[in-house]
Amino acid sequence: MEGNHSHDHDLGFWRKYIFSQDHKVIGIQYGFTSLLFLLFGFGLMIVMRWQLAYPGQPIPFIGTWFGEDRAPEGIMLPEFYNQLGAMHGTIMVFLGVVPLAVGAFGNYIVPLQIGAPDMAFPKLNMSSYWVYFVGGVTMLASFLMPGGAANSGWTSYPPLSVIATTGQTFWLIGMVFLITSSLLGSVNFIVTIIQLRAKGLTFMRLPFFVWAQFVTSFLLLLAFPPLEAAGVLQLMDRLAGSSFFMPSGLVVTGQALNVSGGGSPLLWQHLFWFLAHPEVYVLILPAMGIVGEIIANNTRKPLWGYKSMVYAVIFLGFMSFIVWAHHMFMTGMGTIISTFFQTTTMIISIPSIVILTALFISLWGGSIRFTTPMLFALAFLPMFGIGGLTGLPLGLSATDIPLHDTYYVIGHFHYVVAPGTIFALFAGIYYWFPKMTGRKMNEVLGRIHFFGSLVCMNAIFMPMFIVGLAGVSRRLWDGGAQYAHAQPVLHWNEFMSMGAWTLGIFQIPFIMNIFWSIWKGKKVEENHWEATTLEWAAPSPPPHGNFLTTPEVYRAPYEYSVPGHKKDFIPQNQPMEA
Amino acid sequence: MKELLHLPLDGSAHGLAIDNMLAAIHWLMLILFLGWGAFFIYTLIRFRKKKNPVANYAGVKSHLSSYLEIAVAVFEAVLLIGFAVPLWAKRVNEFPAEKDATIVRVVAEQYSWNIHYPGADGIFGRTSISLITDDNPLGLDRTDPNAKDDIATVNQMHVPVNKPVIVRLSSKDVIHSFGVPTMRVKQDAIPGQVIPLWFTPTLTTDQLVAEMAEQFQLKPEGTSPKLFEYIALKDFIAKDSTVVLKKGDVFSQDVVKSLLDAGVTQVLAAPNVTTEIACAQLCGLGHYRMRGYLSVDTKEAYDAWMADQVSQLPQDPVAAVK
Amino acid sequence: MELTHAEDVKKHVRVYVTVFVALLALTIVTVTISYLNLSVVPAIIVALIIASIKGSLVASYFMHLISEKKLIFAALILTVVFFLALIFIPLLAMSDRIH
Amino acid sequence: MEIPYTIKARPDTGLFNAKLGIWLFLASEVMLFGALFSSYILLRIGSVEWPHHVLDVPLATVNTAVLITSSITMVMSWASLMMKDFKKYRLYMGATVLLGFGFLIIKYFEYTHHFHSGELPSHSTFFAIYFTMTGLHGLHVIGGMIVNSYFWGPGSKMWKTEPERFTNRIEVAGLYWHFVDLVWIFLFPVLYLL
Ligand code: HEA
Ligand code: HEA
Ligand code: CUA
Ligand SMILES: [Cu+2]
After folding, report:
1. Which residue of A321, A399, A482, B257 is 20 to 30 Å from D177, comparing CA positions?
2. Would you say residue D30 lies in a domain?
3. pLDDT tens-digit readout, A252-266
4. In a domain, D10, yes or no
């Protein structure tokens, strides 16, 4: 804070804040952009939930803004519903959560936690943000295309996606940018973590969050390129008239399609899920990392079973590459291949259980402080538990028969990504806010945000299991109103929508809190939470180059409440004799 | 547990095995969740800062958790090897003999299900995409001798009860998914491929409907509005022996009044259809309304339906092709 | 690789030239074989073996993989494992289908 | 604080940052082309017939030789820097760029020939995969040439100020360039010969 701000005032406004190469500025750019996208993605869902609750009724207030070709007289058309659904999924996953978890937290925290002055390749870091930004803008621009945005689901299965409107081309181009950005970022993270660790910071002394980011980066590095390839192939199908994913003999609305044929729609699914299954662990691992940090800090004791957690994360990362076809059980799989994927899917649930168990047991014997970040981190555990456990019946092909592509699946993954990952990300924001700004976020607003969100999230997603078990398909414009088997559960749609809208209201205290705290929040010391990891040894906010003196590490990451020690924490960089 | 899950009615031979497995796995999930949940809440209360101001550096020493993890793994393995894999093998490998089964081709398109029966000769006639028209969505070549007796319907699938059904599934345009919740089957319809699936219906649609029936109290005003979406399960005949409502008809305010006049205060009614083919894969803007009907009939009713279809067959096959 | 002396480099240059000649030779071999009209399977096997030899020569000598640090090997082995999964599992999935 | 190990290797890993970085990047490229090869195999196995020798083999053989030659000039340019011979470096690097250019020109003739005979991606799966794979490879060649030209021209100023760093950069650029060559070594038999 008082220290010499090395050379960062030489840079002009543009180089300092816009085209900055400082990992902290880039982290914050990522953070704000991705939060805005999250809010936007949520906004799409708020509109969609109206249609689900009151099918075919005009959307109040804003219905007429969408125009005649999307919502004539405020009534949402099915094609618009499909656009909103596809874009909600895409935006939440690729423009919201991944950039927030990896781009923002990874960028800001990882170099600090390993005692590095910056990322290994600052220019590359800057370009990955801007490539992400371009990808995001491309995605958004697709709403303005004739025919609107992509409308074939976030999974973009051909042939539907190949015969879809122009929005799909934008989706593909946007994805190529987003994937490229992630690739550049992941190279940067891996090199940074391997090469720039401070002296004494061995791999087994890395904070759990860094481990999570490290494994995540490998997932990004090796799983994303196949989707990039698939995206190129689909672009060729759409623009150059090739038939990679188009079989022979297609007849669309009574007209034989004039393509050479010979392609395979399932090829896309393999390439897509080869990415998209590891992708879901990209969504969850950083979240687990954040939760681990916060739990250690707020129980004032080391994480229980740190080593087993690390091995579990590595194993999880590895396994996540060979479970992908559990999304494809209904595509006509034989016994051998389905047994293979069922087995790997069951195996991959074990490391998750190991990590969760370790986090639970870490609570035992602690001196638990219920700060706002801790509340979110604690809520993550059972919420992820529900999401993860409901993955099990989906992972067995026989029980997947009645559940596949129903709201049960929607419930399953929202429990892991919304009250799971999103809560962990909220926890991270509350926890590291003091490091980023030197000020603390308001606890009262934080608690309102927490309890409101917790109740609403469950109100939205718990009924989805009921609806799904009743056999109601997902992606239905009218939420299933046509179907007799949906009648007994139809009334839940309104309830879930109410939950979603109320959830929106409960985000207001959070948004207020962020902006208020940036300028007016209570000023706090650099190690406000009395934490042990290296980021707290830097000033708040850290200057360009991060540390005033080169840090050196002497011990494991979470030396809290060490017996015979005066204070209840020993920072990693504190020399032995102190 | 099975009751708690509120699964749709099951009218198939293999459905029970799936439902039981679903129940078993939900038991595992519930026990794990409650076990951990109890531990979680107890820990939060017991070790809150006020109660436990100084944390214990070492924490839990026992290896109980490892045993627990192993137990979960074992349970999963049992479910997998003992139930999931055999069940799947039965679904995809052990097809019933074709001669003992009702064989139907189903060709999905945006947004309907084309149902194709081979007719009396048991052989599906030739189809060609060049013959596809609005009247002939299957592109059936009626000049082919095998096609002369073929029956084609749209969205109406009839099968006899207690006899295995083999569906040969494909699609004309995009990927759809043939899901019948009450039969516990689901299979993607992928263009360019023919994928078979099979099930044995054990309850007729009428029996299933009867199981879904609900009692309604009739009141002069304020009868549950749900009733007006439901159908009658039997004929209602007033004192003067005029028919107020026939079996299968929908209720209306007037009907309710007449029924009350006739002294009827409660009725049994059921949803209009129960055995539906629901498209489960996003296939475009009409995905939500891509609904077909599966009618499971008694042998007699099925034969009668078939005979009726046969009687409607075009007499001059060439003219039918046009 | 840590090359400090110009002498060492000279030695390497000889290796580069040898590899270069081998690559050209193998190219000619594989093209010649392709005109022999072998049946499909042996043709594919031979062509892929030759390509793999050429590929390993480039990787080992031009890219110095042969004397590279084990960290890089670890990353590459991981990549190769997933690469093989990506190639073979979809193939297996395509061949093991309900029919 | 400065970012460490940009020039010198980190003792415990034995690597400088950019070298690790480029290898990781190449790993991801392996997966990118791996997905394309996987698609190729799947589509080919699923196809009814697959054309044989419809592409211009002699031309492609020449092109293979061109690319292999550019690989050795690339590695020689780095070796020249190691021997502190900047003039030779310029020579070899220049040759590498020119050979890359030659490769593209030959490719251009191949492409236009196919365009004129109507053999477009929409013609058949074979031509679709041919254009996609060689096109993507071609883009990689162009990318490499841009980098190499930069290091041949304006970027080479660094030799005067930070020779060690510059040598590292050439090594990294070389790794990329060899990889592009390596991909072609597989593309050539797979598309042209089989
Ligand atoms: C972050 C995201 C995330 C995570 C972590 C997971 C985790 C898992 N998922 Fe999920 N999944 C998705 C995101 C995720 N999934 C998405 C987005 C889809 C749908 C995509 C689409 O079709 O659009 C999907 C779909 C999906 C399917 C396809 C369903 C279908 O389409 O039919 C399957 C099938 O196997 C599956 C399985 C699993 C399994 C076995 C896990 C396992 O890893 C879970 C392991 C975890 C546990 C077993 C919990 C352990 C915890 C406890 C035991 C503690 C209990 C806690 C308390 C009481 C406090 N998932
Ligand atoms: C990471 C992924 C993610 C997340 C977080 C969410 C979050 C939510 N999702 Fe979604 N969803 C998907 C991924 C995700 N979803 C995917 C992949 C699909 C499938 C799409 C398809 O079918 O192809 C889907 C589909 C889907 C459906 C099914 C649609 C259908 O099948 O027809 C529904 C229905 O209710 C739904 C609802 C919601 C709701 C209510 C939330 C809420 O939890 C949202 C909560 C959001 C917030 C709380 C925002 C917080 C942000 C802020 C407050 C910003 C602050 C800003 C500043 C400070 C600047 N989602
Ligand atoms: Cu057909 Cu959805
Ligand atoms: Cu998955």
Report:
1. A321
2. yes
3. 888 888 888 889 999
4. no
CB contact under 8 A, D34 and A226: yes
Q: Which atom of ligand 1 is nearest to the CA of A396?
A: 35
Residue D1 pLDDT class (50, 70, 90 cuts): low
Which chain B residue is nearest to residue C94, measuring alpha carbons? Answer: B193
Predicted structure pTM score: 0.94
B126 in any annotated domain: yes
Domain that holds residue B235: 213-271
Q: What is the pLDDT of residue A269?
A: 96
- Nearest chain A Cα distance for residue D14, angstroms: 10
The DSSP code sequence of B82-124 is IIIHHHHHHHHT-PPPGGGSEEEEEEEETTEEEEEE-TTTT-P
Q: Which ligand is nearest to the CA of A425?
A: 2
Sheet holding B112-117, edge to edge: B151-154, B112-117, B102-109, B165-171, B195-199
In this prediction, residues A32-50 reach a mean pLDDT of 96
Q: How far is B285 from chain A (nearest CA, A)?
A: 5
Query: How far apart (Å, rounded) are the C-alpha atoms in residues A285 and A291?
Result: 10
Residue-wise pLDDT tens digits, A448-483:
999 999 999 999 999 999 999 999 999 999 999 888
For residues B62 and D145, give the distance between their C-alpha atoms in angstroms, rounded to a whole number: 61
Statement to judge: residues B129 and B186 lie in one domain? yes
* Mean pLDDT of chain B, nearest integer: 88
Return the ligand number nearest the Cα of A394: 1
Nearest residue to B137 via CA among B111, B165, B159: B111
Residue of B nearest to A163 (CA): B174
Residue type (1 letter), B312: Q
Domains, chain A, in order of start with CATH, read 26-241+263-537 (1.20.210.10)
In this structure, which amino acid lies at residue D155? G
CA dist A76 and A64 (Å) reads: 10
CA distances from D125 to A168, A262, B171 (A): 22, 7, 21
Q: Give the N- to C-terminal CA distance of chain A in Å, as an integer.
A: 24
From CA B291, how far away is CA A482, in angstroms rounded? 8
Q: What span, in angstroms and rounded, lies between the C-alpha atoms of A320 and A313?
A: 10
| Same-domain pairing of B303 and B187 | yes
User: What pLDDT score does A257 carry?
Assistant: 87
Split into its structural domains, chain B has a count of 3
Under an 8 A CB cutoff, do B196 and C97 touch? no
B89-100: average pLDDT: 90
Please tell me the distance between residue A497's alpha carbon and the centre of ligand 2 in angstroms.
12
CA A321 / ligand 4 centre spacing (Å): 10
> Residue A381 pLDDT more than 70?
yes
Write the CATH number for B236.
3.90.105.10
Residue D175 lies inside a defined structural domain of this protein:
yes
Give me ligand 4 centre to Cα A219, in Å: 13
Pocket test for ligand 2, best of A35, A45, A507 (most atoms within 8 A of CB): A45
Q: Where are the domains of chain C?
A: 1-67, 69-99
In tens, the pLDDT along A53-78 reads 999 899 998 888 888 888 988 899 99
